[in-house]
Structure to design on (144 residues):
């Protein structure tokens, strides 16, 4: 079983869903960050529980060379949509992003179809549709 699959099983066993796993470097620290979600929200206690359950697996199957910090958190209200499922689960949220052709888009995600065409509503109330394959990057945003 792949490491990500093992982590997913542990996260689901804690009553949460695995959103994403990111490996990065911040201030000379290697970080292995696990993002979890739940319809009921993500509490600090749940993050700690997942961390305690995942740590022994990472001790055996080291995810990064050398020392690293394990972080478990919610992806937040403004989060990157790196996978098709992330977009599909963001119906009703504000989404912005870049297109492979160099353009940009911004609007409320209102639907998607079986061909992975995503329909958005812009600030003027007009709808526009984008094929998933045309989207280079996307993230949710909140109107503060």
């Amino acid at each position: 079983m792949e490491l990500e699959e093992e982590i997913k099983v542990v996260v689901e066993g804690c009553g949460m869903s695995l959103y994403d796993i990111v490996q990065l470097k911040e201030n000379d620290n290697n970080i292995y960050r696990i993002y979890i979600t739940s319809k009921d929200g993500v509490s600090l206690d749940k993050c700690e529980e997942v961390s305690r359950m995942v740590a022994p697996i990472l001790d055996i199957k080291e995810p990064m060379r050398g020392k690293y910090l394990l972080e478990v958190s919610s992806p937040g209200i403004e989060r990157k949509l790196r996978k098709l499922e992330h977009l599909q689960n963001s119906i009703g949220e504000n989404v912005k992003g870049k297109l492979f052709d160099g353009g940009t888009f911004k609007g409320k995600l209102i639907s998607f179809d079986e061909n992975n065409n995503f329909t958005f509503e812009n600030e003027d109330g007009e709808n526009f549709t984008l094929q998933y394959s045309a989207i280079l990057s996307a993230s949710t945003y909140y109107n503060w």
In short: Residues 84-140 form a domain with the SH3 type barrels. fold (CATH 2.30.30.100). The beta strands are 17-26, 29-37, 69-73, 94-99, 104-112, 117-121, 127-131, 135-140.
